Amino acid sequence: MTVLLRRLWAEDKGQDVAEYAVMLAVILVIVIGAVQLIGSNADTVFSSVASSIQ
């Protein structure tokens, strides 16, 4: 049992994959939030421009 735990503790490949997955998740959350923020602001700007043209 202790040999298995030592081997899992020394294994670095699994940790690298987990770190990349966490970084990807954080980046996706930031991108999705930015797109939603820009989308709602762009909608407001386009609406005001459209109403001023008419």
- Gross geometry: rod-shaped
Query: Number of helix segments?
Result: 2
CA gyration radius, whole angstroms: 23 Å
DSSP, total strands:
0
Instruction: Please tell me the total number of domains.
Output: 1
Task: Give the mean pLDDT.
Answer: 81
For the biggest sheet, the summary is: none
Ends distance: 76 Å
Helix content: over 70%
Low-pLDDT ranges = none
Layout of SSEs?
Layout: H1 2-10, H2 13-53
What report would you give on this structure?
The chain crosses the membrane at residues 20-38. Keywords: Membrane, Transmembrane, Transmembrane helix. This is Flp/Fap pilin component. By secondary structure, the protein is an all-alpha fold. The protein has one domain. 93% of the residues lie in helices and 0% in strands. The chain contains two helices and no strands. The model has no long low-confidence stretch (mean pLDDT 81).
Summary tags:
mainly alpha; 54 residues; 2 helices; 0% strand
Could you write a compact summary of the structure shown?
By secondary structure, the chain is mostly helical.
